[in-house]
Task: structure prediction
Amino acid sequence: MTRCARECTRLYFFEEPVYDATGGAWLDVQLSAGVRVAVPHLPAGLDEGDAVSLQRTLLDGLIEQEGIDEFVAWYYTPMALPFSDHLAPAAVIYDCMDELSAFKGAPTVPGEREAALLRRAALVLTGGQSLYEAKRHQHRNIHPFPSSVEVEHFAQARTIAVDPPDQAGIPHPRLGFFGVIDERMDLDLLSGVAARGPTGSWCCSGRW
Result:
């Protein structure tokens, strides 16, 4: 997103909602590395219909306030479609990061919304070769976009001389796991490696 922001006039990232609002819904917009991150704050206890309606209102308000007329809509999840399907972007891009139907207890709704998004999209990217193979026949303009790293960013770790505060108290040696933390994570494998490996500390980092 930060690389895209260098080439775009304006780039907005509309985040998933936080259910902590009191006295009505509101939108928190912060500028970070050229990206305008918009976080909807909604009242707790809303049903899906009300949550969609409020997000639609907040999104429309942002577009009006910022004077946005011609834009490209880039989706990371089809779950954002219900509150944005009334918009008329110049183009729609679907960056398919996960197979939502593979998640534990996944309802049928994600699949239906993804099908609708695929019909709208001019370009589809998949987060890996296996996702591409699974969806390559569902769109005329789909391309694999394997995971990679921001070399310049992660190379900074080689110059760290003092442990970060959240790691200072963790004994050495440290063994790390980085990846998605959800029901697909092989906890038995990690447990077995930890039990058989050298004495040390396991550090796990990822996204839920």
